[in-house]
Amino acid sequence: MGTPIARRLLAGGNRVRVWNRSPERSEPLAAVGATVAASPSAAVDGAEVVVVMLADAGAVETVLFGPDGAATALRPGTVVVQMSTIGPDEVRAVAGRLPAGVYLLDAPVGGSVNAARAGTLVIFAGGTADAVERAAPVLGQLGTVRHCGPIGAGAAVKLVANTGLVTAVAALHDALAVAAALGVDRQTALDVLDRGALGGAVGRATASGASFAVTMAAKDARLALRRPVPAPVLEAALDLMRAAPDQDADLSSLVSPDFCEGTLMRLTLDNPESVAAPFGDRFAHVARIDVGGGALLMLAGQVAVDDDGEVVAPGDAGAQAERIFEIVGGVLAAHGASFDDVLHVRTFMTDLADLPAYAAVRRRLFTGTPPPASTTVEVSRLFLPGAVLEVEVTAVVRSR
Description:
Layout: H1 2-11, E1 17-18, H2 27-30, E2 35-36, H3 40-44, E3 49-52, H4 57-65, E4 79-82, H5 88-97, E5 103-106, E6 109-110, H6 113-118, E7 121-126, H7 129-139, E8 143-149, H8 153-182, H9 186-194, H10 199-206, H11 214-224, H12 232-242, H13 257-261, E9 266-270, E10 286-291, E11 294-302, H14 317-334, E12 342-349, H15 355-365, E13 373-378, E14 389-398
């Protein structure tokens, strides 16, 4: 989104200086008149309005406050227009760290690439009326500004909007899946649904030029679910997005014929070549169940053994946890997954007094919000002498 926004501002006769974490992406902008800066601080030096459009809160943190970060070069009176979709809490944290006299406008957008090019974005603004007024000459070239309230309000409204979007697209997926199962022609189903409650979702799913990657939509869903609110439909939509075969494809891929109509279930027992086979190949590391557009990984109970099958660090729960999750991570990676894809962890341990050491390793590796579901069981002994932990993992992954 940053590129079409910059192009729109250049077309409006503005002097635009750009910086991108991927330098090659700035080259097309340089060709149409933008000045390419060497760092975030150089990009904002002397600017009256600074537009930040990044993937997530971590990127915003690095670009604003990391080495050579933009915050060091902001001058009093500058308006920072934060357009990245991040959580309200993260927006308020950014506001609290900016230099004195610098305004922050929380301004995520509704609309995709085509709307940015045409200047028809809807901008959900959170901040003071003064900040909105100062940024208005720039934002007016990008679309319509809706002042939603104080800092954080723009981010909150954007999460509400995206919750509606992803749940509607997920509902359209289900409706088309039912249509396929009942033998209803897909175009007939789309025509009927377009005239009902899912008309907006049909329009979004069949539009050209939209660019909202599944992985980014799933990120926004996780942000919305951080609040302790019952949202079973959004949770189901998030599961559907996790199962999407191409995480970088547009959200409309969730209603593609292949993903909606699915395939027959396929079961694979696997020992990835990149991970040492357990105990001389006497059992499989993982059972993989492929169905529809996704897959379920069920990892066998893992204990802390080296490549020769010997127990690592007998009696040491922390060290054994490190080794177990090294193995688990390798198996997940071999199937195109990561710890972020884990749904459930079941742990057997010989002494619950070891739980803090084990939990410390878990917290470092499982950083998503919310964390995976978890079951912990104390047992009198495990099948290998010296082993104090055994871990089973279930994960959702995209199809190969």
